[in-house]
């Protein structure tokens, strides 16, 4: 054991390390001249005592953890700029891994625009979207039981949309941001639209 301790932390093949231990032992008077053990190995790969220890099932567990992490990744918040000069923030929050909140907020508008609103339309049909849960002025109107939790990270003065059933999504999530605004001194509203693709959010990434 005394001689083995000397080589324990060396990144050497096990058989090479034990040969060195045997050589050191040969320097002792008590073992000098005695026959040493012959060491053989049938290991298919090089192994050292410094190799990291991997418990059984670690790779499988790591893969599950990676998949679980993917299922909780939200799209990044972005800003959409329209031809009229209006800028709309598009943000996201997660209720569950298969339920996402999308909110829109007008963050900049020219002075001659007196009223402006950005709504979501053209949401994929395969998703469970209740029209009663789209373009609402407050999180509470969505009927989300976790609204007090996820709404903490949302800004004020938004329109909220609750998108359910993301595990059913068979393509990237695309929808339209419908901008409606009115200029000062005008009665009629003007419309602009932008198509947005946010990829596969949350559990949709797993292609279940």
Automatic annotation (TrEMBL):
<dbReference type="Pfam" id="PF18703">
    <property type="entry name" value="MALT1_Ig"/>
</dbReference>
<protein>
    <submittedName>
        <fullName>MALT1 protein</fullName>
    </submittedName>
</protein>
<feature type="domain" description="MALT1 immunoglobulin-like">
    <location>
        <begin position="71"/>
        <end position="208"/>
    </location>
</feature>
<dbReference type="InterPro" id="IPR033540">
    <property type="entry name" value="MALT1_IG-like_dom_sf"/>
</dbReference>
<dbReference type="InterPro" id="IPR041077">
    <property type="entry name" value="MALT1_Ig"/>
</dbReference>
<dbReference type="InterPro" id="IPR052039">
    <property type="entry name" value="Caspase-related_regulators"/>
</dbReference>
């Amino acid at each position: 054991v005394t001689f083995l301790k000397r080589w324990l932390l060396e990144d050497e093949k096990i058989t090479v390390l034990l040969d060195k231990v045997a050589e050191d032992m040969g320097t002792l008077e008590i073992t000098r001249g005695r026959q040493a053990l012959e060491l053989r190995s049938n290991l298919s790969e090089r192994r050292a005592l410094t190799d990291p220890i991997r418990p059984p099932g670690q790779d499988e567990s790591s893969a599950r953890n990676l998949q679980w992490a993917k299922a909780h990744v939200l799209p990044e918040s972005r800003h959409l700029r329209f031809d009229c000069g209006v800028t709309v923030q598009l943000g996201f929050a997660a209720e569950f891994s298969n339920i996402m909140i999308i909110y829109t907020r007008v963050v900049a508008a020219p002075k001659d625009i007196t009223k402006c609103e950005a709504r979501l339309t053209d949401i994929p049909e395969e998703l469970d979207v209740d029209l009663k849960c789209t373009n609402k002025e407050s999180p509470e109107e969505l009927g989300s039981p976790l609204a007090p939790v996820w709404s903490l990270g949302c800004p004020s003065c938004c329109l909220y949309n609750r998108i359910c059933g993301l595990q059913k999504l068979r393509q990237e999530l695309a929808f339209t941001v419908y901008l409606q605004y009115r200029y000062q001194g005008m009665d009629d509203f003007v419309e602009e639209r932008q198509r947005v693709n946010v990829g596969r959010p949350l559990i949709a990434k797993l292609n279940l």
